[in-house]
Amino acid sequence: MKYLNRFMKWYLGENDVEKEPPKDGFFRILYLVVNFPGKMLMINLVFIITCIPLITIPSAWAALCAFTGKMFLKGYDFTLEDYLAEFKEGFVKKLVLGIIGFAVIFYGYYLMSLAGNYKALSDNISYMIIMGAGCVIFGTGTLFSVWTFVMAAHLRLGLSGIIKNAAILLILEWKSSLKLIIYTTIYLFIILAFMPYSILVPMIIGNSLYSLICSSIICPVIKRRITDPYEEAVTPSTPTY
């Protein structure tokens, strides 16, 4: 019974030893995954359930980004009720963002598939041009989707504001965008290389872990580029005499 209680405390993140957790980076992600696996598994399951009507996938993804983003920034104070509230908030806006992102990603995938026809005809020049264009468009669509949904989860901006800020930041913060591309490529490679067994990864923890990684990259940028300057601008300065 003692070991069962210890296991459940670890599983739910109720640790007896208080210590300063890592503030950011890989060790922050590792700390959250190791100390709160129950919450990661739970929110992953809730995300899958809320995606069952396909039209709700954009809202579910934004809610997942809100959950993992708050988890990364503040610990674990974002509850299931908060997830559901975020899921219902701005449904149409998130649906439009999802349609735009999906359209760009699908067009990139279409071009990459089309390039295979030219390779079969031994037209290597056309193959490289179309495949290159497809990869660029696919990657751009992926970056656009990740940036917009994390921003939609943490900023109360209109549709045009989300799109404009995401487009600017994914270029200005090119190092962050490069990290997102690398992590996304690794994630997709693992899923595709080990199919059908790898389907268990997103079913168990893959979605929440990927969202946590994306949030760990984008949330600090949002804080540094948007929220902190805004708070400094609206906070009245104290006069000195």
Feature tags:
single chain, 241 residues, mainly alpha, 10 helices, globular
Walk me through this protein's architecture.
By secondary structure, this protein is an all-alpha fold. Helices cover 80% and strands 0% of the residues. It contains ten helices and no strands. The protein has helices at 2-12, 25-35, 37-50, 57-74, 80-88, 91-120, 124-154, 159-172, 174-193, 200-234. Helix 4 (57-74) crosses helix 7, helix 4 (57-74) packs across helix 10 and helix 7 (124-154) crosses helix 8. The radius of gyration is 20 Å and the shape is globular. The model has no long low-confidence stretch (mean pLDDT 86).
Describe the secondary-structure layout:
Layout: H1 2-12, H2 25-35, H3 37-50, H4 57-74, H5 80-88, H6 91-120, H7 124-154, H8 159-172, H9 174-193, H10 200-234
Helix pairs in contact: 3-4, 3-10, 4-5, 4-6, 4-7, 4-10, 6-7, 7-8, 7-9, 7-10, 8-9, 9-10
Helical segment count: 10
Low-confidence stretches: none
Note the beta-strand portion.
under 5%
Q: First CA to last CA: what distance?
A: 65 Å
Question: How would a crystallographer describe the biggest sheet?
Answer: none
Q: Report mean pLDDT, rounded to a whole number.
A: 86
Write down the overall geometry. globular
Helix/strand-derived category reads mainly alpha
Quaternary structure annotation: single chain
Rounded Rg? 20 Å
Order of helices and strands: HHHHHHHHHH
Extended strand count: 0
